[in-house]
Amino acid sequence: MSSFGSVLRSLVASVRRQTATLTGTDARSAPVERKQRAADNHGRPAEFATVEVDPASVGRVRMTYVPSTDGDPDPGEIVWTWVPYEERDGRGKDRPVLIVAEEPAGTRLAVQLTSKPHDDSRDFVSIGIGPWDQQGRPSWVNVGRVFRVHPLGMRREASAIDKSSYVGVAAALKDRYRWH
């Protein structure tokens, strides 16, 4: 079996070299680039990608607490989606976000969760402990970064936060961005 694997690897390498020669690309970098693009949104089409948005540019935002564990991301629910890193270099990772509003186009606005304590920052609002963190750690949301989540870009629903925590997050977002 190991000789078959060697032959197969050799054949694949040969095809990559030939493809690189025909396309003018580096055969070693092409697979990495494809892998990076696929990892950026877990292989989902780019139009479903979670993206960071300028909160001032999203227009009128109506925040209403309406969680419903129906498979769709609803305000008040924590969902998992690919989130771009703050460096905005095309990389990111799968993270929990709190859905805070639904936009007319069907996309959702969200803020990122963290379990790293942030008691002294106006960018972070405590939402307590909940089933979204299997280790039972307290969580905060970062109101300093707002994301647009497409329902087809999320990986899964985790759970809903309680209404009083949602109201606290909504108040912080309204105060910071002058949302209604």
Automatic annotation (TrEMBL):
GO MF terms held by the record: DNA binding
Residue ranges, annotated region (Disordered): 22-43
Highest taxon above the source species: Bacteria
Biased composition (Basic and acidic residues): 31-43
Name assigned to this protein: Growth inhibitor PemK
Source species: Mycetocola zhujimingii
Source organism phylogeny: Bacteria, Bacillati, Actinomycetota, Actinomycetes, Micrococcales
